Structure to design on (422 residues):
């Protein structure tokens, strides 16, 4: 199998609900797209027993339900609690409650209230004002990458760019940034996971969450006493009609924005670069007009690599789809990563086409839960891919195999060995 949805005839077996077979349930994510292609074709409304959830993979089905705010609510509590062994449930509960306050897991009217407050802090002007600084960081990191010649592009460029950008926007001091990054990385196996593997993630994730709360507690106290021109100060001061974010809401937003601000963009940059280099006719096209094509390149790569793989909903009443009843209270996972490769929705879905138009992908979600940080991710991606095409024209992969982190919610490469041939 390869990562572009090609099925190997020798392994093109039918989808089965045997939990010992199901590679999705075993988180074998390096061969994700061929499996999702079979799932989309053979069992698009799939019950995944080990994870205790329904999995939807077709664009039309997801389009229908993602907009349904009457019969579905956002909730991950059941997804997190159901697979936990008794000895892990008490330790996991603060994690579940904390993640339940992340913006994509909150429902109206609380969601409306929180988003309105955070939007007063995370403004379009704040994002636009970051453009010169992003350009400076991009060029600095490309200088370092060129000096190394052969390197891991994740470590030299794709990780440090969004991490530094979100740290500077939020106002996290340089001397604390590494600690923040490590703690956020420790949260990911739990918050981006599902199924029995959550049991092993509880302990480390709980330690990292507690560390992050202590770190943000100190920083927020400093900002309240001495406000700065940064996102932490703006969120701490945000008020609408006498309403403010509670302490728990503020901490949840800090962790959510920090993780979303660097992990997903890192995934877009690393997996997107790999996709361009694996389809060299598209790489050559981008190099021919980086100014004109960088914006559409970001949209197409967001569709193609789908850094945020899913949305999670719970029905408040029984729902029927394709003749299957999804019962009230059971978790439904809508796989954007599968919908964005659906041949019924996209022509040649397993090929990159940086001129694709229209491109109605679900890479940033949809509706009230549309990604708050999408303008920042698009800005970083546009500046980065423009600069990569101009300054690294001889870039090439130095590996035939790209490994991905064992997390279901964010598809992110572990490393990306490259040569600049400078």
């Amino acid at each position: 199998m390869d990562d572009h949805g090609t099925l190997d005839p020798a392994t093109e077996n039918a989808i089965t609900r045997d939990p010992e077979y199901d590679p999705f349930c075993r988180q074998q994510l390096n061969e994700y797209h061929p499996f999702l292609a079979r799932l989309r074709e053979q069992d698009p409304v799939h019950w995944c027993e080990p994870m205790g959830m329904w999995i939807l993979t077709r664009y039309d089905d997801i389009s229908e339900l993602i907009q349904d705010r009457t019969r579905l609510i956002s909730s991950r509590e059941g997804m997190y609690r159901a697979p936990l062994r008794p000895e892990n449930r008490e330790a996991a509960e603060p994690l579940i409650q904390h993640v339940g306050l992340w913006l994509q897991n909150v429902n109206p009217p609380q969601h409306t209230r929180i988003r309105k407050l955070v939007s007063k802090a995370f403004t379009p002007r704040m994002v636009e004002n970051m453009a010169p600084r992003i350009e400076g960081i991009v060029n600095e990191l490309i200088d370092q990458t060129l000096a190394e010649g052969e390197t891991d592009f994740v470590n030299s460029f794709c990780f440090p760019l969004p991490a530094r950008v979100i740290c500077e926007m939020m106002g996290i001091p340089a001397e604390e940034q590494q600690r923040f990054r490590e703690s956020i990385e420790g949260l990911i196996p739990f918050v981006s996971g599902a199924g029995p593997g959550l049991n092993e993630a509880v302990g480390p994730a709980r330690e990292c969450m507690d560390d992050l709360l202590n770190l943000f507690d100190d920083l927020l106290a400093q900002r309240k006493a001495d406000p700065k021109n940064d996102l932490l100060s703006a969120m701490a001061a945000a008020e609408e009609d006498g309403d403010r974010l509670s302490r728990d809401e503020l901490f949840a937003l800090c962790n959510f924005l920090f993780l979303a601000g660097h992990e997903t963009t890192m995934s877009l940059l690393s997996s997107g670069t790999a996709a361009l280099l694996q389809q060299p006719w598209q790489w050559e096209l981008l190099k021919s007009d980086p100014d004109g094509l960088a914006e559409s390149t970001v949209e197409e790569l967001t569709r193609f690599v789908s850094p945020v793989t899913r949305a999670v909903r719970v029905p408040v009443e029984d729902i029927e789809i394709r003749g299957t009843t999804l019962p009230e209270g059971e978790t439904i996972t809508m796989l954007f990563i599968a919908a964005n490769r659906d041949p019924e929705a996209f022509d040649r879905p397993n090929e990159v086409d940086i001129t694709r138009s229209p491109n109605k992908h679900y890479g940033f979600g949809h509706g009230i839960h549309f990604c708050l940080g999408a303008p920042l991710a698009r800005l970083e991606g546009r500046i980065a891919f423009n600069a990569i095409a101009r300054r690294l024209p001889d870039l090439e992969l130095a590996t035939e195999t790209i490994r991905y982190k064992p997390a279901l919610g964010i598809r992110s490469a572990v490393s990306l060995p490259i040569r600049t041939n400078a």
Remarks:
- Residues 247-278 form the longest helix (32 residues).
- Residues 158 and 417 are 12 Å apart (CA to CA).
